[in-house]
Amino acid sequence: MDIGFGDPRMKGFVTNVGLITSSGPHGDNIMACEWTYRISYSPSLLAVCIGRGKATSENILFSKEFGVNICSTQQNEVSSIAGRSSGKTTNKIGALKELGVEFNNGEEIDVLMVKESSIKAECNLIKVVDVGDHPILIGEVVKITTNEADPITYHKGKYWNVGENIPKPDSNRMEEINTTVQKHVKSS
Ligand SMILES: Cc1cc2nc3c(=O)[nH]c(=O)nc-3n(C[C@H](O)[C@H](O)[C@H](O)COP(=O)(O)O)c2cc1C
């Protein structure tokens, strides 16, 4: 089955946005990547799914390292700029710097990191899972820092705040849930 870009049946997904930084044959570069996931605690692994042939993918396959900068609610413009053009034809880092976005040098990798991101994780590429049209690049985290900035969410092609916390069920309902689940515990 093929479910193309923009298909309304995929509108139920909510993601974060990773600003993926890299350096390689296409110079210093940044792209927006909503398919950015945490996939292991120990070792600490992150996965990013990146379309084949993108500048970011070619940089990472060359240098074997990348930065995952989780986009904050203050960085929607960064995401849009990073996601709109290719590092093969546009110096997005140069444009962003001129627009006032600040970068730091990575401490463990030779890649720029986006200052003020919610999470900044420096990764060494350890595996490529070459599936579908967005191969999975898995990186082991070698340095990670966070700040108080709220992460942005991405849903229905738009940026959102995380929003309000959904309250837990009240105590009566909790009791009903616990009793019901207990009734369905499988005997070993
Ligand atoms: C919010 C947002 C999320 C995106 N998520 C992804 C993604 O998960 N994977 C991907 O390959 N491209 C994604 N893109 C598109 C890339 O960012 C876009 O193709 C970019 O131009 C690639 O840059 P590069 O060629 O410099 O690597 C996204 C774009 C936006 C705006």
Notable features of this structure?
single chain, 20% helix, binds flavin mononucleotide, 7-stranded antiparallel beta sheet, alpha+beta
Description:
With 188 residues, the protein is of the alpha+beta class. 20% of the residues lie in helices and 36% in strands. It has four helices and twelve strands; from the N terminus they run βββββαβααββββββα. The N and C termini lie far apart (39 Å). The chain binds flavin mononucleotide. Flavin mononucleotide binds next to strand 3, helix 1 and helix 2.
Mean pLDDT score: 97
Strand % is 35-45%
Q: Which residues sit in consecutive blocks of at least 5 with pLDDT less than 50?
A: none
Largest sheet: 7 strands, antiparallel
Q: Helix fraction?
A: 10-25%
Number of helices: 4
Given the helix and strand composition, which structural class is it?
alpha+beta
What hetero molecules are bound to the protein chains?
flavin mononucleotide
In the sheet with the most strands, the strands line up as 3-2-6-9-10-5-4
